[in-house]
Amino acid sequence: MSNPKKIVLAYSGGLDTSVILPWLKERYPGVKVVAFAADLGQGDELDGLKAKAKASGADQVVVKDLRQEFAEQFCFKVLKAGAVYEHDYLLGTSIARPLIAREQVAVAHATGADAVGHGATGKGNDQVRFELTYMALDPSLAIIAPWKDPAFKLRSREAAVDYAVAKGIPVPTTKKKIYSRDRNLWHISHEGADLEDPANEPKDDLWVLSVPVSKAPNRAEYVTIDFVAGVPTALNGKPMPGHKIILKLNEIAGRHAVGQADLAENRLVGIKSRGAYETPGGTVLCTAHRALESITLDRETMHYKQQVALKYAELVYYGQWFTTIREALDAFIDRTQQDVTGRVKIKLFKGRATPAGVTSPKTLYNLDLASFTMGGLYNEADAIGFIRLFGLPMKVEALLRGNNKKS
């Protein structure tokens, strides 16, 4: 297409988008740039953002408070699914991108823009997440991705810092603190610098939402979370909207060093990358949700749902949120959650969140059946025939292949 007339840029005020905004004005003379920022719980990172964007060349700045929707319609869907990527990553950045990109498209429609843009690099996952959403929601919009433009010469974070200094643009990153970070309600990620080498242990001063384990209190703290149909509804007996539950849990669990993860993950583009993640509140909620499912889901449903969770995590990680398969899996997951209602008590201590009690009016846990005391609903004599039939294929194989002979 010809040069865009108006671009809606996903703008965070971080290093990448801070330099990309003025660069777009240079790259496309006369173009209008709408800086769009989604408030997903970044806290003070949004302070002064509108003024900064204007000073950097934005013709219009749009900020939307999406915290509650992000928590309840995105994070909690991942929570109900039990979706975790490669054992440890709770998908904090992955789940945010479809919402940001969806709102960019909406702003483009509202402002008459013919293009949308992002500051994701050509080596990462975010480029895919943004662009798949743009394509799914309005394929007529042009996609502007400076990192993949040959004219974009800022090929390192150090070069971006130099450009920002030359343009007089304040950025939160310096060459001494060059980490790439992404923060929202659900988590904060840390990448780059010394973390690029997986031989390096994360430094104690890396953590933002939590303290190092060595500085966690020597006394445990307990919290209770109430769930209705798989959704958190109250913290310590107090009903709260979803985003406030997460924020409060971040504060409580963070002071106990809960939710720190360090992993080398497989990016969609085919390379491994190392990142450190903090998900204090999310870790508590995931632990509590699993504990509640352990007494409310039957065996077959639970085991099949574990398989679904792996696929769901991949869909989120790969940016395939606006797809039929994700919506279909949500229908299955919502059915599994109908009876996931109850209260879970969680113990927070020295970097760990562990279940300390779970109750539910929908429990499938029968004390009489679980007891070592025989009798009642369970007749131990029934086990004789059950085991004979269950093991019949193994017995037949042994007989026919001579496995019963002594060596």
Structure write-up:
The chain is of the alpha/beta class and 407 residues long. It has 3 domains: 6-177, Rossmann fold, CATH 3.40.50; 187-297 and 339-359, Argininosuccinate synthetase, chain A, domain 2; 371-401, no CATH class. The protein contains 13 helices and 14 strands. It has helices spanning 15-27, 49-55, 67-81, 92-111, 126-137, 157-167, 242-254, 280-296, 299-317, 324-336, 367-370, 382-390, 392-401; strands at residues 6-10, 32-39, 60-65, 115-117, 142-144, 180-183, 188-191, 221-228, 231-235, 238-239, 260-266, 272-278, 342-349, 352-359. Strand 11 and strand 12 (272-278) form a beta hairpin. Helix 1 packs across helix 6, helix 7 packs across helix 8 (280-296) and helix 9 packs antiparallel against helix 10 (324-336). It is elongated. The relative contact order is 0.13.
Which descriptors apply to this entry?
407 residues, alpha/beta, Rossmann fold, Argininosuccinate synthetase, chain A, domain 2, 3 domains, five-stranded parallel sheet, five-stranded antiparallel sheet
CATH class wording of the largest domain:
Alpha Beta
Can you tell me the overall shape? elongated
CATH topology-level fold name of the largest domain: Rossmann fold
CATH architecture group name of the largest domain: 3-Layer(aba) Sandwich
Produce the secondary structure layout.
Elements: E1 6-10, H1 15-27, E2 32-39, H2 49-55, E3 60-65, H3 67-81, H4 92-111, E4 115-117, H5 126-137, E5 142-144, H6 157-167, E6 180-183, E7 188-191, E8 221-228, E9 231-235, E10 238-239, H7 242-254, E11 260-266, E12 272-278, H8 280-296, H9 299-317, H10 324-336, E13 342-349, E14 352-359, H11 367-370, H12 382-390, H13 392-401
Parallel strand pairs: 1-2, 1-4, 2-3, 4-5
Antiparallel strand pairs: 6-7, 7-12, 8-9, 8-13, 9-10, 11-12, 13-14
